[in-house]
Amino acid sequence: MKYLGIIIVLVLMSCSSDDSQNDPLYNTQSNKLSVGASANDLLSDTTFSSLVVEVVYVEGFEPSQTAISNFVSFLENRTFKPNGITVQKRAISSPGLTPYTNQEIAAIEDSNRLLYNNDNQIAVWAFFADGSSANNTDSGVVLGTAYRNTSFVIYQETIQQLTSGTITNTTPILESTVITHEFGHILGLTNLGTPLQTNHEDLEHPKHCNIESCLMYWKAESGNGVMSMISGGSIPQLDAQCIADLQANGGK
Ligand SMILES: [Zn+2]
Ligand SMILES: [Zn+2]
């Protein structure tokens, strides 16, 4: 591949059914809505006072503990969960389907996910794949995708390949960046279920922030954007306008 670009793709995919209200598995269905639909439930403690993240990785593609710790800190800084945020992590064997389509990623979740919302606790599914996205092209590779209201995938093999051979260990920084960018979409950024408080959506790159240094900036999705954004060795942070949006929707 002559040119290695980087894309973090957001796919809006709703798998909710019209009869979910009558479904005995309603709590399962409540985790199968579109991206951004549970932003307030995740940000506030109105309905859910605690949050659990089910981290499932393919053997050999475990995310770094640094990245998981950074993700938990991101959640603690932005959400009200007085009864705590916990992570349950485990490995599965390879589904053997790389490159993965979004439909395959959703099917892997459906086959392996154990934790769904209950009365007081909201559950999040994070899958770390042993391969690449089927949406990769010669001009861009996908590092992660938020595809349901509480679900995202990280293409851990692609992240490891991009950061292998670097003098300083950038893998945890890239992991942390992709995880928090995808979760930013799940929190409704930008204008994706969390209403804008100021006009900072980049209309040329919808559902992204127009502040160049912000975690939700579109360059995190194109060309060498991500690598240049993390070249200083730090993880891009949400800017003040994105934080204001989250605060107005029940967050910190
Ligand atoms: Zn994005
Ligand atoms: Zn922003």
From TrEMBL:
Keywords: Hydrolase, Metalloprotease, Protease
InterPro entries: MetalloPept_cat_dom_sf
SUPFAM superfamilies linked to this entry: Metalloproteases ('zincins'), catalytic domain (SSF55486)
PROSITE patterns: PROKAR_LIPOPROTEIN
Molecular function terms, GO-annotated: metallopeptidase activity
Keyword presence, Protease: yes
Domain of life of the native organism: Bacteria
Protein name: Membrane metalloprotease
